[in-house]
Design goal:
This protein has 429 residues and is of the alpha/beta class. It has 16 helices and 17 strands. It has a seven-stranded mixed sheet, sandwiched between helices. A four-stranded antiparallel sheet has the order 12-13-16-15, with helices on one face. α3 runs antiparallel to α11 and α5 (113-124) packs across α10 (262-273). The chain is globular, with a radius of gyration of 22 Å. It starts with 11 loop residues before the first strand and ends with a strand. The structure holds pyridoxal-5'-phosphate (PLP). Pyridoxal-5'-phosphate binds next to α5.
């Protein structure tokens, strides 16, 4: 079905470009898997925080002829010939990123936000340097010091966290740890924190101890683009963004920096940590960045936040506890233990009824990490499909019924109905 965005009148459908005869002939197994995946999506409500729908225009650019172009290096200084048009596409992407985020410098080549984090560290640090970042237990990403990730192996991480009383980042602790450890870099940003970091305060602390400030802003890149979140760009030396989450572009990363660091950032991507750029992804990023500059996209971002607030309010009403009491973003992280279930059990029960959300360990979580006391949800995908506050309030109620142990069948039925009504639409481009 086609949903029209009431706020903007804009609408689109994504089609099925992958359902081609050629693929079916060449590889029926993969063709069948893709068809089944499309069906799975059509029957479920997707609330995983980092997922979204790639815009139809971005999908088209991703499958365009630049997919075959080898283009090591940067526009005007490539290691391969025949790059004039690839250069033009990358320059468009760079200009659009700089304009959209008011950044002196942009690098559009990182293949993921984690690769972009690697490049940010490589641009600023040497192995063994100290880094102060949000601890993994309180919402830091793997790239913020996990021992199983390059970051934790190559740098000496110290973790800060949120206060137990209100769930907000404890800036006094950040300042104390910065003074004590004198890190070479401080990282602000999280995968599950539902409020906006105080970028100016982080900058002040970094300045006091002469540290670089890295903004790990992958989760909220789209909100920053839409001016629905304060931008870290004026404060951070390097900002790490993601193009596939709220921005609805290709799976990938983006680095924004000061002019002084431009050369170091570029070298940290190529040749230090990547080879040839994926030029189809670069073209797709250019398209996504252009779309994100439109009033329709801004309306989308506002709706994603309003929907998340409705979801958080609904969960709270049913006895769950949203971290920090609510949200300023498209994310909700909620303690489900008051309902007598673990995060893992909540994830299982909801998935069985077609509602996809993620278990999430909470700060100060008494449960073992594999079970966890919380769940994390995001409104990126459902808002792209045209759902709004009304549907998200209802979804909160459906989740509450599942966790309270009500009969799952009627809930699953309603989930299928809702999913079916909104599948295929793409709002806000
Ligand atoms: C999503 C996310 C990442 C990882 O992104 P990938 O593209 O999967 O590597 C890193 N940091 C933060 C804060 C994120 O939200």
């Amino acid at each position: 079905m086609t949903v029209t965005d009431a706020a903007t009148g804009s609408t689109a459908t994504r089609g099925r470009p992958w359902a081609s005869e050629a693929l079916h002939r060449a590889d029926p197994q993969i063709a069948d898997l893709l068809a089944a995946e499309a069906e799975r999506r059509a029957e479920t409500i997707q609330l995983l925080a980092g997922e979204n729908l790639t815009s139809p225009a971005v999908l088209a650019a991703l499958t365009g002829p630049l997919i075959d172009k080898y283009a090591e290096g940067y526009p005007g200084r490539r290691h391969h010939t025949g790059c004039a048009l690839a250069d033009a596409a990358e320059l468009l992407a760079i200009d659009r990123a700089r304009d959209l985020f008011a950044a002196p410098h942009a690098n559009v080549q990182p293949r993921s936000a984690t690769s972009a984090m690697l490049a940010a560290y490589a641009a600023l640090l040497r192995p063994g340097d100290g880094v102060l970042a949000m601890s993994l237990e309180h919402g830091g990403h793997l790239s913020c010091g996990s021992r199983s990730n390059f970051s934790g192996r190559w740098f000496a991480f110290t973790g800060y966290g949120v206060r137990e009383s209100d769930g907000l980042i404890d800036l006094d602790q950040v300042r104390d740890l910065a003074r004590l450890h004198r890190p070479k870099a401080i990282v602000a940003g999280s995968i599950s924190y539902p409020r906006h970091p105080d970028w100016a305060a982080f900058r002040e602390i970094a300045d006091e101890v002469d540290a670089y400030l890295i903004a790990s802003a992958a989760q909220t890149t789209g909100l920053i683009a839409a001016r629905e979140a304060p931008s870290p760009v004026p404060y951070a030396d390097v900002t790490v963004a993601a193009t596939h989450k709220l921005l609805r572009g290709p799976r990938g990363g983006l680095l924004l920096s000061t002019a002084e660091l431009a050369e170091r950032v570029d070298r940290a991507v190529f040749p230090f940590s990547q080879g040839g750029a994926a030029m189809n992804e670069v073209a797709g990023k250019a398209v996504a960045l252009a779309e994100a500059a439109t009033p329709a996209y801004r309306a989308y971002a506002r709706r994603a936040v309003a929907g998340a607030r409705a979801l958080a309010a609904g969960l709270a009403e049913a006895g769950m506890r949203p971290l920090t009491g609510g949200t300023d973003t498209h994310l909700v992280t909620a303690d489900v233990s008051p309902l007598g279930v673990t995060g893992a059990e909540a994830e299982r029960r909801c998935a069985a009824a077609g509602l996809l959300l993620g278990k999430c360990a909470l700060p100060y979580d008494p449960a073992p990490a594999a079970e966890a006391s919380g769940v994390r949800l995001g409104t990126g995908t459902v808002t792209s499909q045209g759902m709004g506050e009304v549907e998200l309030s209802e979804i909160a109620g459906l989740i509450a019924r599942l966790l309270a142990g009500d009969a799952a069948t009627p809930v699953a039925q309603r989930v299928r109905e809702l999913a079916g009504a909104f599948t295929g639409a793409f709002v806000g481009a």
